[in-house]
Amino acid sequence: MGHFSTIKEEAYLANMEISKQKLAIYTFGNASSFDPDLGVYAIKPSGVPYDELSPEKMVVVDLENNIVEGELRPSSDTKTHTILYRHFEGIGGICHTHSAYAVAWAQAKRAIPIFGTTHADHLTVEVPVTEVMNDEAITRDYETETGKQILSTFESINYKEVEMVLVACHGPFSWGKDAMKAVYNSAVLEELAKMATLTLQINPAAEELKQTIRDKHYYRKHGKNAYYGQL
Q: Does the annotation mark 218 as catalytic?
């Protein structure tokens, strides 16, 4: 696999984790791994079942959407990955799933409110949702425009602090320092979506978590004085 072997292996393992965590069925979903020094990333091939994947089958793409290495067609969401890698400096992995609860919130075109400390452990704000894409954008270049929808949503949100988004009518995308962190964030997003759904079923008038508890839980894990876990 040559000098792309690392990102191919990382992309393969991340895609297998999507399946392992039951974040997608059949051939749904995809993950990619980026090498900033080479300016390329490895991504799942389009329409290939997870149990047929291997590191060798990953497709390497540059930030102009050119296939650099690989015999198969890359994921149909490739252009969305490209847009995010081009604009979200420092991220090393992206994940897109079709997990049911996160997709349900995306289809409802609703951001996921922050009701409790599980959510606050990971971010202190709601999980954002994009605007619905207009017809002109859909006919222009759907996957690139999906990336642009995400960018416009993050004009006022720090992508380094909020590593997940719901694309309206479509589903969740997440990212992180590497491909495995991106998949981890997708799994967290699905759990938050599920918990929020159940919360609203139990109490449709549930109030969002107050700011002091949000900050306490987030910064004990992420702040400069964090004390969660082992030193």
A: no
Catalytic, out of 35, 121, 142, 178? 121
Q: Encoding tokens for residue 103?
A: 């997709």
228 is catalytic: yes
Contact 166, 102 (CB under 8 A): yes
Q: Would you write out the chain's pLDDT as a tens digit for each of its 231 residues?
A: 467 999 999 999 999 999 999 999 999 999 999 999 999 999 999 999 999 999 999 999 999 999 999 999 999 999 999 999 999 999 999 999 999 999 999 999 999 999 999 999 999 899 999 999 998 888 889 999 999 999 999 999 999 999 999 999 999 999 999 999 999 999 999 999 999 999 999 999 999 999 888 888 888 877 777 776 765
Task: With H, G, I as helix, E, B as strand and everything else as coil, classify residue 92.
Answer: coil
What angle do the packed helices 100-107 and 179-202 form, to 10 degrees? 70
Type of residue found at 214: R
Looking at the chain, the number of H-run helices and the number of E-run strands are 7, 7
pTM > 0.85: yes
Q: Distance (Å, rounded) from C-alpha 59 to C-alpha 65?
A: 11
Place of tokens 């047929």: 52
